[in-house]
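Following up on my earlier thread - several people asked me to post the actual chain instead of describing it. Fair enough. Here it is, all 549 residues.
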Amino acid sequence: MSKDRITVQSHVARDFLQNAAYFGTTPKVVWEYVSNSLDNADEGKPAEVVVELSPDLLKISDNAAGMSRKELKNFFMMHGENLQRSRGKRVRGRFGTGKCAAFGIANVFRVDTVKDKRRNVLELSRHEIESAKSGEPFPVHDIVVDESTDAASGTAIEIRDFNIRKIDVEPTITYVERHLARYRQRARVWINNHECEFREPISTEEFTFSPSVSVAASIGQVILTVKISPTPLDSEMNGIDVLSHGIWHDTTLADHKSKEQTEYIFGEVDVPILEDKEWKIPPFDNTRNNTLNIQNPVVAVLMGWLSECIDEVRKKLVAREKTRRQSEQARRLEKEAAKIAALLNEDFRKLQIDFQRARKIVSRSGMVGATDMFSETGEPLPGDGDDPTNLQTTGQPHGKGKRGQNPPGSGDERRDGPDLMDGTQSGSKKESASNPERRSRRGIFNIEYYNGTVENPRSSYHPDSKTIRINLDHPQVASALHASASSTESRQFREITYEIACVEYALAVAHEQAENARKYNLKRDAEDALYDVRDSINRVSRLLVSALG
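Reply from S.P.:
Thanks for posting it. Predicted structure:
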């Protein structure tokens, strides 16, 4: 045997930090340690986890079994064996990479744990990891070693010295609540004194599917449940949850993502065989992306079957929607929605002109360029072209900062500034789309009426599509429609829906303004937002009332 025998080795520090990169958001990090606590709960005892989130500290405390010194050594072993799984307990943990999670968002990680009246406290910092430049194992700093204590068993994880801009509390609550819904055990989790409780989306219809004999030979005798929401679902809720013995591994629409009507579909299927067998090609993705490995033979068959079932449901929904749109009432509602949208977009266009003027002040303070602050509606802008516009450029074209020439010459530094005002200069839509000096994201509002059941809100705003949806089944709207003998052209029905659109639009504009303020690091307090909402309601309600005739 060769004396310089080649062996497979790992650069521990790189491996550690590469795995940490999979946990790049606060919700993922929090759920990693919350789920560890749930997996480590004492048998027959409800798990309780408390999460404290602040700009300086993330702390996750539990009443679970805690870890002994021996178990801590296993915890800090990269890709170590999951002790609960080795004892026959069905748990989510599989790849032993959770200890890295903290370093996806921060630089200091501390474990304070008690088991069998013995307390251990350990701390690890990014500096210690990065110091292991040669790939050797790096030590975890001992703070307390097997200290005698009367404290109850449990573990507290502390994460400090964040390297991300913002700690997102609300998205973290939503993420944890959604994952708790897939967790099949008794558990209570609090985040900043908010008890996490998942409420499944309302469904108006349900379909069940069983696989054929040939498909069942690969995936087992499973049952797929597909549910239909009356409203479009957000990405966290949209799709079929794939579980194995109650442990969630993926949410998928197979190959139908973004196809018509799929945004209303959710459901679940439990496939035990994914956990029951050892596979040469694993069915689970170890990158924490919560996706199954399509190269696994069972996953491949499962995804093909799910695709067929989802498409069958989707086609029914498409056909139903086509019929609905052809109805007389639907046509009238679409016509009414178009009227409201036209009024709102006209107001929005005027707001944009006001923002063009306001940007002059902002630009002079060096905060943001003149044409980069607010979205445009796709109307022609002044410049090359013969299309009439409602704007005109002001003064000389802006150069790049060089003095002493008229018109300004080129220079080393570009000089931004507002260059539009009310006027009648000709231009073109092409100019607004192609000129980087004036290009910004499109911003046209849409109005939709839909039947969303009595439980859903009377209206909602969807920023991605800038759509305001009005729920015809909400008691206030349904009552107005009933009192009008189901006539969508009655003044009573139109007044109610116009008022709803007005309020939702005011909130939507405030949302858009807040997003732009965040994008450009501009100060915007709550009083500003409240003033703008009130001002928009007052202004737009007058427009809508005049349109009622």
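The chain is about 35% helix and 20% strand. That should answer part of your original question.
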